[in-house]
Amino acid sequence: MARIAVGGFQHETNTFAPQQATWEEFVRADAWPPLLRGPEMIEGVEGFNIPISGAVRRLAELGHEVVPLAWAAAAPASYVTADAYEKMWALFDEDLRKLGPFDAVYLDLHGAMVAENTEDGEGELLRRVRGVVGNDMPIVASLDYHANLTPEMAKLATALVGYRTYPHIDMAVTGKRAVELLDRLLKEKRPVYRAYRQLDFLIPLVWQCTFIEPAKAIFDLVGELEAGEKSHNQGIISVTHTPGFPPADIAQCGPALVVYGHDREAVEAAADKLAQTVKAQEKAFAGELLDADAAARRAIELSKKATKPIVLADVQDNPGAGGTSDTVGLLAALVRHKAKGAVIGMIVDEAAAKAAVETGEGNVMHRGIGAVVGYAGEQPVVADWRVVKVGDGKFTGTGPFYGGARFQIGPMALVTDEASGVSAVLASKRIQAADQEMFRHVGVEPSQVPILGLKSTVHFRADFQPIAETILVVQSPGAHITDPVEMPYKHLRKGIRLRPMGPVWNGA
Ligand SMILES: [Zn+2]
Questions:
Q1: Ligand 1 centroid to 342 CA: how many Å?
Q2: Four-way CATH pick for 1-189: 2.40.50.100, 3.30.70.1130, 3.40.50.300, 3.40.50.2300
Q3: What are the tens digits of pLDDT across the range 192-202?
Q4: Which of 2, 165, 327, 375 meets the CB 3.0–4.6 Å disulfide criterion with 317?
Q5: Cα separations (Å) of 250 from 113, 120, 241, 243, 489?
Q6: Does position 235 have pLDDT exceeding 90, yes or no?
Q7: C-alpha 146 to ligand 1 mean position (Å)
Q8: Ligand 1 mean position to 282 CA, how many Å?
Q9: What does the alpha-carbon distance between residue 207 and residue 222 come to, in Å, rounded to a whole number?
């Protein structure tokens, strides 16, 4: 039995997004738990599909003593404020000094955190943790698929273990895998070699999905390299590839990979093989993007013969990547083309959601909805919105991504513009449209809707692809710009290509 300190600090930072991640965003609950510290953490994360949840459960099964530090996450947004970063670090610092000694540390990290005071949020955190626990203590961290895995992170952690799915349906499983590796390191006490590689092109999120090629085959290879009989003979113990999070304007942005094992040559060879495989697929990271009008027209046409919903993925206004989830490009196009029966969600507009609750079910409110932040100079969509159903925003996710998540996102409402027959799901807090329960909460059975607009880039596929006739990818205004070529970078490293087969970045 070992004493293992366990904590987490999660943020995916889109440095181009309009809203920052403040301390308040980390403290409150949304789809994920609120700030948790000490023994309350164990119960607080139970049942969620997040790494810390899988990790604490597995550590207990393995007979280790779990010493909870602090855990917090905020919805993807722009820079984590220095205030939030330092407040969180103060909790870690105090607990690491007070609750020790430990045999090891497990951290639930994202890997794409950029704070006002550091461009490598996780690298800096690991450096500070090392400063307290020393260089010899095993530190294993789990990482999101979208980590911008920096050389510093690779150097400071004993091992890093990343998700293998996008949509992320293996978040809790990754926490479990990370602590199983930690357990093995503690028991075997053998020297571990590390091979780290960075790829030299950015991959738009929309083409990183593991439900489609080329990511599907690449992640099959990741699994094979780690689990294959040959790998075990050669002592490869862990393989992680992180395709990266392009909207983070930092030098180490982009895809990377890290392989661990006991045989230096085998570890280097596996890293080379994986890097070459990703490189060879560069051209395959591509697909069709439609503007909002073309998408609305095609969806209406397709829905005439379809037996299942035509799903329109509003990929640039994904709050899971820093989008405001209130842009109205797609909503306005659906209204303009009179896409009768279409439903779009979530339109995050707290004032409109509250107004709908006050207006009451069955009644009509004449007002604008959406465009609250006013991204891209948009204006709200004004209409006579009939309030069909209201909800308090408290429900539990049931899909493969958000399953078990206990949502607390404030007033919600389904409102319908009767002139066009288009409906919108209003919400009060930013949340990605990645679970069917968000619609059922306001009386919509998603599988019965002819056209379904979803503010999500890829995560929606876990719960919605099975009920979709087809999925159209829409490029409508949103703070998560699909094509990195359009982002005003200042800090990337020179020589990286801005998209697969795209132009080389040579400085601002
Ligand atoms: Zn992610």
A1: 28
A2: 3.40.50.2300
A3: 999 999 999 99
A4: 327
A5: 10, 8, 19, 15, 8
A6: no
A7: 5
A8: 20
A9: 18
Distance 361 CA to ligand 1 centre (A): 36
- The pLDDT tens digits of the residues spanning 301-341 come to 999 999 999 999 999 999 998 899 999 999 999 999 999 99
State the distance from the centre of ligand 1 to the C-alpha of 175, rounded, in angstroms.
14
**Total number of residues shown for the chain:** 508
Which tokens is 98 given?
């007070």
Query: Taking 70 as the threshold, does the pLDDT of residue 232 lie above it?
Result: no
CB distance 234 to 163 below 8 Å: no
How remote is the CA of residue 491 from the centroid of ligand 1, in Å? 22
Query: What is the Å distance from ligand 1's center to 462 Cα?
Result: 13
**459 alpha carbon to ligand 1 midpoint, in Å?**
9
pLDDT in tens, 209-222: 999 999 999 999 99
User: What's the CATH number of domain 191-287+483-508, 3.30.300, 3.30.70, 3.30.420, 2.40.50?
Assistant: 3.30.70
Residue carrying the six token digits 């003979």: 233
Q: Which of 37-41, 81-85, 283-287, 480-484 has the lowest mean pLDDT?
A: 480-484
pTM above 0.85, yes or no: yes
Ligand 1: centre distance to CA 258 (Å): 17
